[in-house]
Write a sequence for this structure.
């Protein structure tokens, strides 16, 4: 079965009908809110919202299954390495020590360290659904038209549009080349040794690179023949005007970001960390 990672499939629902500019502003606003704060309460609040938005978008888990596996592996490695290299950082941040158990004098497990590391994991886990929503529910051409309207050069906007479009094309090309090579006897299964499998994958990457270069040249020639870049401005076939729901969504994203600042400077007394140990 071919992967649907980064594939845009149009649907008729609230999330898909938002402007590409709106989704970009919301993604940046919510991401900044999560990255700025270390208050586990606020981060969990944004995480719940991101899960709700993902459900509202109608996206299927199989579309992000591969990415989810990579994220889980990354979070697990990050969790372990954080403890290995900074086992006492939580106690330094919160200024107290509530020991649970110890391995030796350096490696002790404290409530403060667990809170700090769980907060870090929650920060990353909150942003991933937002990123997937943005990538999988935004028409690349419509998104390019939206950011061009707010002042971004249309050449840069179009380059970004081509990049977003090319992700699924590259994945499909890789799968097609892999199937063609396997029909010629190239074994990519676990029956082969790891070194042999890596070598076989490289045999797929080489034609993929050449096919990609050919496609780039083809697109570049087509754009030149159509006079792309000759004028300072251009029109967009799929430009979508901002509606009331778009302004409401951007206002909500701004409110959530300001809420993160308020939690820091008013609720937590200027500290980015929520300290339940005092």
């Amino acid at each position: 079965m071919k992967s649907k990672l980064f594939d845009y499939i149009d649907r008729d629902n609230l999330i898909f009908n938002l402007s590409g500019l709106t989704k970009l502003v919301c993604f940046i606003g919510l991401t900044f809110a999560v990255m700025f704060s270390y208050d586990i309460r606020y981060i969990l609040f944004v995480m719940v919202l991101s899960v709700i938005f993902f459900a509202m978008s109608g996206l299927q888990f199989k579309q992000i299954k591969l990415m989810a596996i990579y994220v889980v592996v990354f979070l697990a490695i990050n969790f372990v390495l954080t403890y290995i290299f900074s086992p006492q950082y939580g106690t330094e941040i919160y200024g107290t020590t509530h020991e649970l158990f110890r391995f030796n004098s350096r490696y002790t497990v404290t409530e403060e360290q667990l809170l700090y590391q769980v907060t870090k994991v929650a920060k990353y886990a909150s942003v991933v659904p937002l990123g997937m929503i943005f990538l999988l529910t935004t028409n690349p051409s419509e998104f390019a038209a939206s950011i061009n309207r707010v002042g971004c050069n249309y050449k840069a906007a179009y380059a970004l549009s081509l990049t977003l479009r090319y992700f699924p094309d590259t994945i499909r090309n890789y799968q097609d080349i892999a199937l063609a090579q396997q029909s010629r006897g190239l074994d990519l299964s676990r029956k082969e040794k790891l070194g042999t499998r890596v070598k076989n994958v490289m045999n797929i990457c080489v034609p993929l690179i050449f096919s990609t270069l050919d496609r780039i040249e083809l697109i570049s020639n087509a754009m030149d023949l159509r006079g792309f870049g000759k004028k300072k401005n251009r029109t967009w076939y799929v430009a979508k005007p901002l509606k009331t729901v778009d302004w409401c969504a951007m206002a909500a994203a701004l409110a959530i970001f300001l809420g993160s600042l308020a939690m820091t400077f008013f609720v937590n007394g200027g500290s980015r960390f929520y300290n339940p140990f005092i």
Notes: Residues 194-225 form the longest helix (32 residues). The chain has two domains: 13-139+241-278, 151-237.
